[in-house]
């Protein structure tokens, strides 16, 4: 990360977040459960989650693409898929208040991980770093992430660095067995001198930070 913002190949990830109308969230998730296979027939879904804590009535889904040409071809195919347009997209659009997407790459020192078992929860932490990119803050950020990994209480799923969207943004996804397991681990980490030292160095480059606790939906490959 200290020498570049992304892996060396052309693979990237589109991170989509939708704000759903509060009274329509149940209906939206039912539509996803019933018809989302029409979307995953076109390209690879990494995961699909609904927010439980941090924000309300929000969903996050991540798509993997081989290249921008690949994404363009997928978008063209979706526009011409009558089942997708008629059975899912048109009915759910009135349920959505806002849509946002980002293009991001995995950082070079991170591979996309999987949880050791199903049934846990995911934490999505967004760091807004100071302008300057990984050449400025990459080494300190990596050290802070590795310090948390070394405590053993949490599982790293992925570290994504935004290419399109708000720049100098890093999204980190963690997996824990439960919210209580996460809380206990965080408490221990705050008393770990290695973690404290690494975080103190990293926050010198931090502008803001926020987190969401995410629950995977039925169709999510990452559960």
Automatic annotation (TrEMBL):
Residues 13-111, 122-221 form the NIPSNAP domain. Pfam families: NIPSNAP (PF07978). It comes from the Eukaryota. GO terms for cellular component: mitochondrion. Transmembrane segments: none annotated. InterPro entries: Dimeric_a/b-barrel, NIPSNAP, NipSnap_domain. SUPFAM superfamilies: Dimeric alpha+beta barrel (SSF54909). One of its GO terms (biological process) is mitophagy. Belongs to the NipSnap family. This is NPS3A protein. It comes from Upupa epops. The gene is Nipsnap3a.
């Amino acid at each position: 990360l200290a020498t570049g913002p992304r892996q060396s190949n052309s693979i990237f990830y589109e991170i989509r977040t939708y704000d759903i109308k509060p009274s329509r969230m149940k209906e939206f998730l039912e539509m996803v459960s019933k018809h989302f296979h029409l979307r995953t027939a076109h390209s690879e879904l990494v995961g699909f989650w609904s927010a439980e804590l941090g924000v309300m009535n929000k969903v996050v889904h991540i798509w993997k693409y081989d290249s921008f040409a690949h994404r363009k071809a997928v978008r063209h195919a979706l526009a011409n898929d009558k089942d997708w347009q008629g059975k899912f997209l048109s009915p759910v659009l009135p349920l959505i208040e806002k849509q946002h997407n980002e293009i991001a790459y995995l950082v070079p020192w991170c591979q996309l991980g999987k949880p050791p078992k199903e049934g846990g929860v995911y934490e999505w932490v967004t760091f807004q770093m100071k302008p300057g990119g990984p050449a400025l803050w990459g080494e300190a950020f990596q050290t802070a992430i590795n310090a948390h990994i070394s405590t053993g209480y949490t599982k790293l799923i992925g570290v994504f660095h935004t290419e399109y969207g708000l720049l100098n943004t890093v999204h980190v996804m963690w997996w824990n067995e439960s919210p209580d397991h996460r809380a206990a681990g965080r408490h221990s980490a705050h008393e770990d001198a290695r973690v404290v030292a690494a975080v103190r160095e990293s926050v010198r480059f931090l502008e803001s930070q926020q987190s969401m606790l995410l629950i995977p939906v039925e169709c999510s490959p990452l559960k």
